[in-house]
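Posting this for the archive.
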Amino acid sequence: MDGNSTISFFTAYGGGLLGIAQVGTAVVLAIFTIKLYHATARYADLVDSQNAIMKDQNGILDEQNKKVELQNLIMKYQNQLNSEKKDHDVLVMKYNRMLDEMDNLVAPLFARRYDEQIFSMKKFDSKIKFKNFRGRVDENPIDREFYEFWENIVRYSYLDQSSYLLTHINKYKQSIKNLIESEGKLEEKQRKFEEDKEEFIYIVEHRYSELMEQIKITANKLKLSESPQQASNPGHEYVCIEEET
């Protein structure tokens, strides 16, 4: 076969081979495209699945955060209740202590402040005991009343929450002692005693009014339905007095 024949052969059959190659290439590309499509679709499904999982996780986290916020709110409310209960208990203790001071110390002094049998010149000391005077007191009911009264005042003097009542009780007692034991003109000593007694009575009235006001204020804070008079000892006659300004 000469050169021209060879050229003619390749010319005749070459176009066919090229066509076959192009078809094969197209088939391969089509297959690759299909596989790529499926791979892309699977990837998209995978991304969607991951997004769904993340969304669920975020939802779970949101629920957990809400639960934590609710727990914190409950704890805050419980702490507030505990604090309010503690404050209330402290206030109740203060209220009861004020009533004890009124019933056992201030009110008896206030009720008998103008009673000459109690505010007399009889001597008494800081350790009054009724048994120490039994020998002669049994024969004198007035003396017995005096000593029993002041024995109770001394016994409950620890209830004084002011900064002055107990001081003036002791000052009054010292005034009586000075009247009886100290030297000097009787008239002058009696005058000094009367001045000290008037001062002491003023202090008793002042503490009575002050304590009554504190009891009323505390009762209002506690929202008590009963009045301080009813809550306290009904045996004492409580009245409101106005101090001179």
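DSSP finds six helices and no strands in the chain. Residues 101-231 form one domain.
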